[in-house]
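Running this now, will post back.
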Amino acid sequence: MMMPANFSAVAENELTYVVGGASLVDYLAPAMKAENWQNVSTNVIKIVGNTFLKNYVSSAFDSVFDGNYVPGDFIGGVFNTVHRAYDKGAHTYSNGAWGAALGILNAGLSIAGGLSAIYTLGSGSIGIRGQLMGFLCFICLLLVGLFWFLSTQLLEPLYTTHIQKQLTEQAEAIVARMDEAIGKGETLSYWAFGSRLYVNNTFFNALRDDIFELGGMSSFCIDISDTTLRQIFKVDNLSYCNLHRTRPTDTADEQTAYTTARAMRQLCRESGGTVVRKINPPTPSGSVQLMVGRMTSDGNYTVLVTTSLMHVAEAGKVLSTVLPLAAALIFAFSMSAAWLFSEWFTKPLRALSGAARQVAQGNYAVHVDSVRNDELGDLAQEFNHMAKEVQHASQMQRDLLANVSHDLRTPLTLIKGYAETVRDLTGDDKKHRDEQMNIIVDETDRLTALVSSVMELSKVTSGALKCEKVHFDMGQLCDEVSERYDAVCAQNGWQLKLEIPDEELPVCADPDMMQRALHNLLGNAMHHIGEDGIFVLRALRCPEGVRVEVEDHGPGISAEDLPYIFDRYYRSRSDAGKQGTGLGLSITKAIFQQHGFRFGVHSTVGKGTVFWFIMTDTEDAAAQ
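Update: finished.
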């Protein structure tokens, strides 16, 4: 079975931290080098000495035994092993790196599970309110989980890194002082007759004073030794020093037997003068301490600086105890806040839903009240506008049916009546018969014009009548159209004024459609001609192209009628009883829209009306 690269080295290093003794390397080395993980598992259980760890250690190594190695599973099993052993008071301690890795893995799984849950909720039928509550609760729980992870899983590694940095700075500062003194030729210590130690008290007393004046750490132990691995100087204000297995009140004489301090001095020399280790306490009630070792440049002295990590462990336990209660309170608060927020947020949506159902049932007068100034408020306003337009369109549809029915019924009634009269009474009276037949012809023409207008409007609005654009002079077209009104103006004593410049007015449009639009506007002007009998056709240049206006001096159009003047069969109150199909302006509007031209109307009651539209000289005007 192939294992990951440098897996043996990492496992060896990590398990060494767990037990805290260098002898473990020799104890486990044969099994680890042979990758006999079954023996490694058994030996770890023996060393820790807690039978309850068997299940957890086995779960860590099962994936390796079975040939299904998964790094996350192995890391998770080892982390659980170390963590539970630490909780039970065993002589173990997590390095923090694997613990942080497992925490990140668990956080990622939590996020993935939460997103999956949100997706499941969103695809169900719980509604926007339920989805919003689920999302808010998930975000709250995610934040609580991240805070828990940062405060418990990362607190210890970050704190350890910070302490290691302080210890390193202090050790390097001491080594620098010693190198400086050695460089000046000072003798720091020597052994007389091999057993009697002489030290430079002046130097080390000054060093002691400087250490306490700096005040970088409140509790620490400094051990300085020479090449004989024996201590020559010590500063200790720890309540209990794991390195020396002593208290500040103990004697300063060092035992010659093999101790943890001697082992760490030797380790510092063997590692090239740079070492970092965690030292486990000799009893379960003690606390883990961190040690940093450095060596002088000449290799004669090693400096070990240690401090306790008890505070961070206690802080982690306190946070682990408090966080579940805090998480429960935060979750309860988030549920209440999510309920209230979702109620407030979805209220306008529920109102819009109810109003939409009323519109579907035919109540177009529905109105949604909204005082919000956000997107939901804009949506409510747009819905009200839509309902108003639908109501207007429905009314126009009813008016259209009524007007078409009336306009068809009137000529048909007249045609039938006069045809019966000719048949029964005046068939032999040529004079009366001709008069009545002329009425029938006129009503037939009127009926034909109505049907033709309806068909033309249908073709233009539906796009069946295609717009064939060409370039031409709009001034010339206006001149040709105006000539056709000379006879009717002379007959009725009216005057059509043509106001066009001497220069060309180039445009791009369908000439036949533009001619139809001009006839509709001029015909409308004649129906509303004023007492002066003057109406005007005007064309002039403007920044956008060519502006065409048709002006009359008639009674004008009221402000409430202006928005609907281009609608089908719409007649203002001043037009009541007048002849016409009521479709001319609607056809004109459809022509302008198909060309993409801007158009409009200005009117003043009692003074007259001006219809206008602006033509361009580009073929893509409709797209604009």
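Confidence is low (pLDDT under 50) at residues 1-8, 14-25, 47-124. More later if anyone needs it.
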